[in-house]
Structure formats: C-alpha cells, structure tokens
Amino acid sequence: MIRVGIVGATGYTGEELMRILANHPEAEVRYITSESQTGTEITKVYGHLHKYYDGVQLKSLQDLAEIAENTDVIFIGLPHGHAMAIGKQLESYDVKIIDLGGDYRFYDTAVYEKWYNVEHTHKDAKAVYGLAEWYRDRIRDAKIVGNAGCYTTASILALAPLAKAGLIDTKSIVIDAKSGMSGAGRGLKLSSHFTEMYDNFTIYGVTNHRHTPEIEQALTEFAGEDVIVNFTPHLLPISRGILSTCYADLKEGVTAEDVDKAFADCYADEHFIRLLGRGACPMVKKVRGSNFCDLGWHIDPRTGRVIVVSAIDNLVKGAAGQAVQNMNIVFGLDESCGLQQVPLYP
Amino acid sequence: MIRVGIVGATGYTGEELMRILANHPEAEVRYITSESQTGTEITKVYGHLHKYYDGVQLKSLQDLAEIAENTDVIFIGLPHGHAMAIGKQLESYDVKIIDLGGDYRFYDTAVYEKWYNVEHTHKDAKAVYGLAEWYRDRIRDAKIVGNAGCYTTASILALAPLAKAGLIDTKSIVIDAKSGMSGAGRGLKLSSHFTEMYDNFTIYGVTNHRHTPEIEQALTEFAGEDVIVNFTPHLLPISRGILSTCYADLKEGVTAEDVDKAFADCYADEHFIRLLGRGACPMVKKVRGSNFCDLGWHIDPRTGRVIVVSAIDNLVKGAAGQAVQNMNIVFGLDESCGLQQVPLYP
Amino acid sequence: MIRVGIVGATGYTGEELMRILANHPEAEVRYITSESQTGTEITKVYGHLHKYYDGVQLKSLQDLAEIAENTDVIFIGLPHGHAMAIGKQLESYDVKIIDLGGDYRFYDTAVYEKWYNVEHTHKDAKAVYGLAEWYRDRIRDAKIVGNAGCYTTASILALAPLAKAGLIDTKSIVIDAKSGMSGAGRGLKLSSHFTEMYDNFTIYGVTNHRHTPEIEQALTEFAGEDVIVNFTPHLLPISRGILSTCYADLKEGVTAEDVDKAFADCYADEHFIRLLGRGACPMVKKVRGSNFCDLGWHIDPRTGRVIVVSAIDNLVKGAAGQAVQNMNIVFGLDESCGLQQVPLYP
Amino acid sequence: MIRVGIVGATGYTGEELMRILANHPEAEVRYITSESQTGTEITKVYGHLHKYYDGVQLKSLQDLAEIAENTDVIFIGLPHGHAMAIGKQLESYDVKIIDLGGDYRFYDTAVYEKWYNVEHTHKDAKAVYGLAEWYRDRIRDAKIVGNAGCYTTASILALAPLAKAGLIDTKSIVIDAKSGMSGAGRGLKLSSHFTEMYDNFTIYGVTNHRHTPEIEQALTEFAGEDVIVNFTPHLLPISRGILSTCYADLKEGVTAEDVDKAFADCYADEHFIRLLGRGACPMVKKVRGSNFCDLGWHIDPRTGRVIVVSAIDNLVKGAAGQAVQNMNIVFGLDESCGLQQVPLYP
Question: Which of A57, A188, B154, B280 has its CA 20 to 30 A from that of B46?
Fold first, then answer.
C-alpha cells in the first residue's frame, strides 16, 4: 500500500483527495494536516466523510518530518508559495511530492515570479509538470510533480493536439473558460457568498489570470513556436465543472479531417479522454465527480476557425483526480487505478 | 458474477443502477430495455456512461423471456402498474425481481388499489417489502422485492426506532419531506421545466401522496398499533436528495436518553445509517451520490415533541442504491458490496 | 415627499429598501449609513443600484442627530440589540422609526431577553408590532414600529385566521418553514458559502429559533389563549423566498367551509394577500420581488388536520416591503403605494 | 392610453410584456392570445400575475381583426415564421406591430431565408430593426419593428462603438455568449428539463446560431465594411441573463483611451446603458429584471485584443423590455417610461 500524506487537507482539493483515496485499492491516507484546525477530527470539518475517516485527526505542518518518514507520497493542497518551502525541506527524504498549487508548474521560474508576484525559493527543484496525458514519461521518475491547474488542464487538453500537429495559427488563440465555484476555494469572500452568486454569472481575471502562462508554456512546447493566448475565466453558479471554449484560426488548407485525425492520434487510447467527436457539445455534468475530460470540436468554414470544447470536473481531472493519476504513474500502477468513479449524473 | 437485467433503463432509476453496477465487483449488466428507444445505444441517451457501456443497446420488453433466461436478477424501473404484469409473466423463471415502483410494496393489495387507483393483477405474488435495514431477513429468500420508495425510506428510517420502542404517540406524526427534482423523473412536464423550478420551491401532493400508506404500513407494523400520518412532500430546486423532517409527540415520561437509545439500539451497527446524534442537522449534500441515510434528532421540552431529521440521496438509498443493497442480500453478498461510493461533496 | 434615512444600509434589508424606495412616488432616501463602509458610494457596494443612487455616500451613525433632524422616518437594518439604543436616543426627535430587527417586536421584553439573550434597554418604548395586515390600527399612530420578522410574517399570516376563528387546537401547531439564503444575511460564514449550500438543503435552529416567540405572541393574542408551537426553519439553496407549511388539528366539527370562510373573512379585501384557495399549492417564485403573500390550504379528513401553506419573498413582505407598507400606514398613504412590483417570474 | 395586444402571450416574452406593462402609466393590455390555451384565464397559466390580470382570458388569432381594430400596437411573441403572416394581414390596419421573433430583423430577406430555412412571405414589409439605442430614428416612424434578439442585443451593444469608430479588425471578432435557460423558452424538451440542466453548463449552436447574421448585419453597417464573426452560445443553469464576452483585434496604434472614448461617445447619455468602465466585470444578476445593459471592457497589450463584456436580462433588454422601449419610441413617449424596474438583486 502506498502511504499517503495530505498537507492542507481542509481545502476542497484536500477533501477531494480523501474522497478518491478512500476507495483506492493501492493507497491509504496516513496523515492529513491543517494549520487552522490542527487536532480536529476531519469528519467535523467534512461530515460527508463519516464512515470513511472516523476518528482521523488533522496534524500540523510541525509534524512534517514525521509525516515524510512514514509516507511514500505527500500531496500539497496549499495556496501557492507554501509548497516550495516544503519541497525544499523534504529534498533529502525518500518521499514523492505532488503539489496541487502553482509552485512547481513552470520550467522557467522567472515566469512564475512574474505572474505570481512572489520569489521562487526552490529553483533547482527536480520538478516536472503534471499533466498526465502529455508528460507521463517525465512524471514516472519525478521527485516532485507540479500538478497541472484546473483551467489549464481543460484548455491544454483541448488545444494540444492541434498545436502539436501544426494545424493552427499560434497567435490566434482565444480561450473562453467557465468554472464552477469550488474553483474559488473554501475561503470566505463576498464573491463566493451564496446569495451573491446564485442565479448569477460573471467574468473575472480578464487578461491577467495566472493560468495563462501555464497554458502558453505547454502549447509553446507542443507547437514548437511561441504561443500567446487570451485566456478569460468566468464563474458559473454551480459547484463543480469547467467548460473551456477554445478558438483558433486554422492554417490555410487544413481540413476537418486533419483536425479529427489530430485528436484521434493523440487521444484514441487515452482512458480519461472521451472524444465525443466533431460537432459534439460537451456538458460539465456528464463528467461530474469523475476524472474524465470530454472533448468536442467544430470547424467554421465561414471564418476559418476551429472551436474546441472541453469539459472536466475541476476538482477531479482539474485537481485531485489528476493528482492521483500522477501518483499512479509515479508508483507504476495502472493510471486508472482508484479512479473509476462514474460521473454523477443527473 | 450476478447477471443483471434492467427493464426501463432510460429513467433516472435505471440510469442510476447502471452507474452503481458499473463498478460492482460481483455483478454485471447484461440487458437493458426501453420501449421508446429500443435499439439505441445507451450512451446516446446518457452520455456520462461513455467508457462504461460503450456499444450497449437498449432491448425491448418483447425480449423478456430471453432476458429472464440469461440473467439472475431483473430490476424494474417502470411506472407503477407495469411491474406486476412482468412479475406474473416471470413466475416460472429462475430469476429474482427487484421492482423500484409501487406494485409490490403493500401487504394488502387493496391499499395499493385505493391509493394508486388501479387494479392489482398479481395479488398472490411472493413479494416482500424492500427496506433493507428492517426487512433483510425476509428479503434474503424473496422471489420479488418491492423496493421501498424514496420518501418512505427517508421517513421510515427516521421514525421506526421510536415506533418500535413505543416512545411516540402514533396519532401525532407529521412528516414534512422535501425532495430534489430527480424524484419527479425524466418525463417532460411544465412543473419539471428548468426555468419554472429554478430559484423556486413548492409543495404538492398534500394529504394524498402515494408514499403515505407505505409509511403507515411499516410504522404500524413496528409500533404494533395503527399509525396514521400526515405526509407532505415538497419539491426542492436541486437534482438529488431528500430531507425528511418528522414530528411526533413523545409519550409521557419519555426522556431524551430513551430516544438516543432507541436509535442506537436499531442502527449502531448499520453501515448505511450514520447517526449524527441528538441536536444534529443533516444535509442532503453530505449524502449525495451515496447509499447513506444520515439521522439527527431533537427534543423540544416546551412542546413535548421529538423532531427526527433524515437525509438520503433519493436516487441511491431512495432507489437504485437500496435496490443493489437488496440484491446483495438476496445473493448472499455483503450488503455494502459495490456501494462504497463516497458522497460527492461539495 | 417623506424624507427617509436608512441605518445599516449595506445589509440585504437595507439594499432592498433602496430598491423599493427608488421608485416610491411619495418618499425619497436622504441618508444611508454603514459603520464598516462609511464614506463609500453605495453603488460600489451594490452595483445594481447604478442610475438610481449614483454618487450617494454612506454616512456613519455618528451623524444620527443630523439624520434625525432631516428625515421623517428612519429604517433600521442592523442586527438585534442595536436598534433599541438608537430608538432611545431618538425619543425626543420628531422622526418615526421602523426597525427591521427583533428589538421592538415583543410586548413583554422579558420574552425578548430570554430568546435573544440580551438585556432590553428601552423597555418603555412606544413601539408596536409591525405586521401590517393585523396591526394597522396600532401602526398608524406609532412612534416606533417593530417590523415583523420574515418567518413570522409567513407563519402568522397563514395561521392567524384559524386562530382568530377558534378553529384549531392551539397546542397542536407545527410550522415547518423553508427560507432562501438571503435570510441568512450578507455576513460571510461557511454555511452561506456558495459551494457549501448549492445543490444542498438543510435544517437548523430546531426548537430554538428566535422567531418562535414572535409567532406565539401573535397567535396567542388572536386565539385568546396560550399558543405554543414547534417552529422549524430550513435553508433553501435559492436567493429569496419563504414557504411555510403549517399544521394544526382542527377542532371537532370544524368543516372545510369554516376554514375557507375564516380566510375570506380576514383577507378577501387585502391587497397583498392572494388567496389561492383550498387545495392550492403556493410557490415562492410566484411572489419573488413582490410584497405578496400567497396562501393555500388543505384539509385532511384522515387525520383531522388542516395544512396551511404560505409563500412570501423574505426580503420584501418579510422585511423591506412590509417596512414600506408600514411607512405608508404611518404617513397616511395607500398601503400599496410604491409597492406595485409585479413578481419576477420566471 | 396606448391600447396593447399581445399575440402569443403564454410564452416567456409574452409573460414578461404583461409584467412590464402592468405598471406602464401610458399603456394597457387589452388583448392577449394563445392558440393552445384559448379561453383560459392568464392567471391560470401564470399565477404570479394574480391581482394584475385577474379574469383576463386568452383570445385566439381568429380574433385578429377585432384585436387590430381595438389596439394601437400589437406585440408578437410567436416562433419565427408566424409574424410575417400576421404582419401581411394587418398591412391595412392602423396598428403598429412589434415582433419579438426573427421575421422582420433583416434588411435582406435572403439572409433570413438562408439562416432560418423558411421562405419569407412579406418581403416588402415596411419594417425596421428594433435595436433602440442605434436605430431610434428609424423606429420612430416604423409600422413594423423587428425587435432585436437577445444575444444580438448584448453583442451588438458591446461591439458597435468599436466598429463605428473603426478601432477593430472586423475579421477578428469572436463572441462567446452565455444565456440563462428562459432563452430556450417554455416549450418542453429534455435539454430544458430541470434535472438535466441543474448544476450543468453546456455549449450549443456552434457556428450556426441564427443570431449570427443579425449581429453581422448591424456591425457591418456600423463599420462600413463586411463583418463576419464567430458567435457561440452557451446555456447557463439560471433563469435569466446573458453575458456576452466579445474579443477583437485592435487596429495598430489604437490606445486604451481611444476605446474608452468610443464607448463614451456612443453611450454616455443612454439611460439603459451603464458604462462600468475599463477593467470592469459585469454580472448578470446586477441587471436581473431590468432593462439595463451593463458594459465593461479590457485591453490586452500582450495580444493586442480588446475584450468587451456585456450583461443584460434576456427577457427584458433582450426581449420584452426593449420591445416596450421601442413602443415608447414609436408613440413619442420617454424611452424609459414604464421601464424603471430596479434590478432584483440579490
């Protein structure tokens, strides 16, 4: 059994790791931490976990050495800026780290420093970017995995096949993404207050959301040329789910079949990517609670654009599910091990 | 492997059976039927089932004999009135039947005929009432299980310990229940139209809902005296979940500890019943997607009443989950086999 | 023009007063206050008020004397405990006070002190209870109006005709009420966090909600005998609306026609009460944004109970709308003046 | 008083006309029609209208001549294809027509025929396009107004100032729009079924939605050159509201101030357009129930794009509200007459 520690367990990504790992046949949660609620039983924080984590108490980061010595992998579910300190501290420990924040996602830490406005303190980390379908070969041997972000997973999975096949103008990309409110976290703020957001819909982070450079890093790598995008996030009045609508100009002469082939070439054998096909319209509820990414695409002969649409559950494929998928890769398990949750529909 | 047939697979209870059985280690779905969509692949009807039921086509009831010969158990997810015909037709087949409708829930078919306003055509059926926690001894040997209704499961589980222990005035019971919209089914009607019900809440079926006699039948049996109740259903603008608020006058001299003990005596060892305790307030989202029933209770010394509150997912513990639990009982499996879905929260 | 001040304008009741008064032909808002956001323009706090309150800044309670001297009526939208200090301070000013909190709702301040757990510091206030339909004769000459609470308005309007006509057993009353989340206010707390409450439903305040004694005070007065009730609130995952389901035992010999007559006698001429009739099922969305209270009722011959169902918008008839109705009464206007908002459906 | 007829009154646009006109000081509804519910009282169809339209019965189109003779204006709330027959039939009557469908929106009926796939039978109609802010001079004298569509109103209002000022590349426009479910109408279909759409979000009509040519027609006119766009609609799980996110490449040398000025030049004096400013993020709930269009815009120096965001209530500014605004123009009233509904927030 893989022994698991979860640092920052009271946020939604931590909670979701616990939900998924409760039934994982090859892993078990040994430690969970929270600085604000140290000593509390997790079922007092998340009542839905009764019968799975009865009696399990939250530890503190002060116990980090003990945790590292008694676990095989530590998931970090803290706000950005904290994981790099932990990663540095655990360099000499024989424990893998999967960080669900932004600290270890960038090849060039200067990009991180610019967009996150904080100094990177672990620049020589042996970290790899944790988008499982595209980087599993690197993830396999990683000490630290910088788990891909939620919006970025939805957006990169949608556009990567076209970027890689060289079918689109890399300067023409517009990504209009919509996320459920769990993406805004459990921290209290007026913009996440029920009465404010119910029966509402809004836009935010226009031109400056931190997932932008992460998307550009990956697409630049696949395209082999600089990619610069407009990424625009919106907030949906639902709990879970991201739908990403991605626009790009097709290069001259590219056919619909070329586009179809690009998706099939990349994803036909991927368990967690469901190719709904050309003309298909994904829905977030059809992936709710699961690790799937549903993809549909459309060609517009009038404008010469391709529109790719992806749907994921932001807490699963966009966070905890992909983190477990990465853990499975790191420990040589089948990628879908423990991730067979059927979408909860309706 | 238990070979399963699902008759009426395109309704929400049929869909939910497929979701649960997709990961059941001891059962597999062999046949699914729909009269309105015979021949269609189920993934065209329920896209979220992609990767689990790819290529599986809906059969017709005309294939019933074939289905009965090649399955061990048939779940029926049809509107009331249809199951009794099927049950009669399959009397000589070596196949178990678990009906999720109302046809086989009543000891006295005259009660069924009165409340459902239809003649019962299978009065000599060897059927038992399928509320797993209270009738597992009978279910074990049943040919036909009349799976308990959604509201009834929530309500009986809440009140049965008090009725059995003789703590409440059996003429004083008021059950005020609230259900998510999936309980109204997938059939199109204005009252289930999104724009009509969103940001809305309403009451219906006051004094005449068909789950009333089912609740009375069970509580009468446990109390050993005639129980008559007011059961009032309401529609919540959510997908899943029932919360049932049950009021009863405590008999003279009954203490809070007596009430606590009644719940502990009945449910302390039940896997699917989570006793949140006296003063606790269940929430429907904390059981969403799972087979749990959460219970909390309150004593009001001012009025002498006890208020018991139960929460279930109407499609799981209130329908498909309990049906699988009943299947597990019938086939000698552990009751929780294949039913370990952790509630999907948040 | 009636000159209006609103103390505590940044809460939802304050906001709602501004919404309603923006179009009131005989009143205009002259002052609004907030201690936490003094000096801020109200349109920064509530962007929907652009074009109605452009440039209007929030004042402080420190300006209370100035406000009192330049207004005819002051609405107080503060948490309980604050209004009585203000009321005392303004005793000598020629300004009416309409308090939307609990401070001035009780004849017997000992009841207030017991349920609100705070000392009442303005026991000799000339205050009247502000349930417009039942107390307009007193309200007309009041200095201070203790505007009725949201749950209480829905519950008293439902049961008062039966209590007054002596048709029900006053010890048998059970009120099961459900409220939208705006009733929990704009203050941040986990239980009002979007992701926690969306697709959720829960119960709270069982046996001890502060609206209980307010309901009992009114029904006791109408019935002419001590009324004691179980009042149980629930939280609906919607913004606005209360639906109150009220159960009571009918006295021996009471007929359905007696019940019908009781409602007609009390409400046939009331503008804001819409008698949907016996057998009718009110919906909260049909009163959304309006000052109406919709009523339906049901007789259960099996149990001898009557079930009365009321629906209001908690922020309008349950707070700001009724407060304006009370203002209209105090200043001799037609009660519906400025309150002609048609319900916003769908 | 302007005497009003509403043809097709049982759809949501018809209902919304009744809601708005109930309080219009210069107009009154004289006739309403429905073919499916002729003879029914409208309050049986829309219970929220009690106290405003008590006793008013639905007529039939067979009464059209009578209606035309006794009204000054007829609003048509029927599916496309029906209005042109009515318009032709009423050519000789002294009554104005405001059609809320697509029949009279196009200068070139061939465009209509291509996108709507139906023959236009009233090609010589004296119709004008009913986007009030941009066409009021033409609307003033029109016999027939083809009221602008919901998505189109949100999209054109967002982009027209930039097109008119020549600031954007007219081939670069991408419009990603999101609408509440009332936009899908009251007709029953699975995609509008509560349980299917709740906690869901989806895309539809990619590359082929009928509002595309309407947007192109207007923007082409303002830009003075052919505009071709990608318009992509999505369905929000809310009742009302459209948010339209519009992307375009800025022409070389265009500054942020140029963009600001374009909006101010066009809209500074418009009552129903609220310029939230550069960097602002509109929300649909802040216009709910009102005739406002909120606008915010963003410049991205990295990509050279401008992103304009508009929010409207699809049933008000996107349908019935704008229709009343057009009526006000036609009859020489102040445009905001009867349209002073404050947004219903929260």
Answer: B154
